[in-house]
Amino acid sequence: MARDRKEARRPHGELVADVMTVLWAAGEPMTAQQVQGALHQDLARTTVATILARLHEKGTVVRTQPGRSFAYAPVSDAAGLAAGRMRRELEKEPQRDLVLKRFVSSLSTDDGDLLRRLLVEAEAGPAEVESAEAESAEAESAEAGSTGTESTAVESADAEPAPSEGPAAPEGTA
To answer: Which residue in 8, 19, 70, 136 is deepest, having the highest Cβ count within 10 Å?
Structure first.
């Protein structure tokens, strides 16, 4: 009997992931009974209530008490939770630079490019990000060998006026 029970056990974290999926899909706070019904699994309401209480203790969900039962809602989306786990793991390590170096070196080229872009965006202000995106789009267009008259018209409309004769005045002193 004990052997059958062990074979029927779910992988660690699977039920928690299922509960979080239900909460994210709901878009509004849910009670343990509502989550239990949405899971469509043979689980006791107390099992679901225990999972929700533990998630609340960890700060993964918030709870309110609109009636007699607590209602739970996720604090963050799946990406936010994954980012939090990554940050907590990094904070545990005394050699953060080495961990980050190994992490970055293990990324695919596309993920590395995405990470670089996100770091630039995080450091730059919104205007700088828009300017960098525009420059990137222009560079991609030039690499593609775009020779259509429409792109030339747009490029000439966006072009800066030719500099006036004589030495240029430093920015902010005109």
So the answer is: 19
